[in-house]
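Sat 14:20. Reprocessing the chain from the morning session after the first attempt stalled halfway. Input below, unchanged.
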Amino acid sequence: MRRAAAFALTLTILSLIATAPSARAQLFWPFSSPTPEPQPKAIDKQKEPQPAKPKAATNTQPAIKQPKTAPVPSVSPTTGSLPAATSIDRKRDAVNQWVVGIAAGRIEGAPLRLAAELAEVTDDGDNLRVMPIVTRGVFENFTDILYLRGVDAAIVYGDAMGHYKTKDRIANIDNQVAYVANLFVAEMHVLARPGINSMRDLAGKKVNFNVAGTAAAFTGPLVFERLGINVVKQFEPQREALAAIGKESDVAAIVIVTTKPAPSLAQSNWPEGFRLIPVEYTSALEDYYVPANLDPSDYPRLIPEGQKVATIAVPVVLAAANAAAGSDRHRRLSRFVDRFVERLGALQKPPYDANWKSVNLAATVPGWKRFSAMQQKLGTLGVTTSSSAAAAVDKNVARKQAIRAAPDDAAEQEKLFQKFLEWNQGQPR
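Finished this time. Tokens:
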């Protein structure tokens, strides 16, 4: 019994030792206060962490973090070729290196058709590609060469140079745009309603000149002004005006300036009495224009067999930006000139436009300077330059024009004819 009591006492003592101090106090003296919870120690202000003192300035520059750069493409060790993206870039550069953009004109005009034929014949794959561009009109093609990206050359009319020299007064314009070749001439067509027999009959009446920027909108009013005939000018799209004039319309005539035959006139059935009226060649028109005629073969529905309609024509010029020698633009245009001269013979054969047959590379353009690469090319070929007017003018036509200009005055007829011949002979050759 004593052993059991001693063992129990030992267990009790061990359990007390293992109990927390506050609990032991409660077991031995139930009225004692519990041990208070430990409080956080007071912070010694003298031992508070002080702000770090600034370090003394040194001459050492801080390291600059370099931007991440794309890895340089490398040749594949398995295929031995460049990555696809780099190959595309190289192809893009190759395709664009020898592209010549040529401002042509509106869809209904002959210059766009001619530019398309020029592009077809001169095409040489990646070595040369001519891109015809549909524009606002042949007249504005001149400014496109100066200001529009992607335009290196253009088909323009010769009288545009005079306009920019005298009216717009663009400084040094004849050194900024030069001619590659005098291609041929574009005839002035005046389609009139019944009862209109001459240009003078149109005085005070409404005449349509196509939309602004086209050859008709520029050359047409200028010719009427020089002839002293005041008309009511209208600038509606040609196709709409042609469709309306055959019906009830207050438009007395439509002016079209293009190489003959103009499809819009040749392929239409006009009501009885519609006709193409003559445009007299006078001294007022001799600076930029030449005599011409329209034949029944051109317009069988408008000109009776055996008759001709006398008119005037303006030179059609293949022009180029007079880029500085050695520039990328000049190199592209020089290659184009070489190819154009080489392939002109192909253009002068069917099925291409018959007007190419009259192209004379040696012909000059009054008031213009020749593109330097073309001048060098002609020198290499031993070609002697000649007057563009002399190449284009038929003296018999000039004589008839003089008769029409002064029908009742033989002396004035001869004066006009001789004056024209003097001017023609005075052109540089």
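The longest strand covers residues 177-192.
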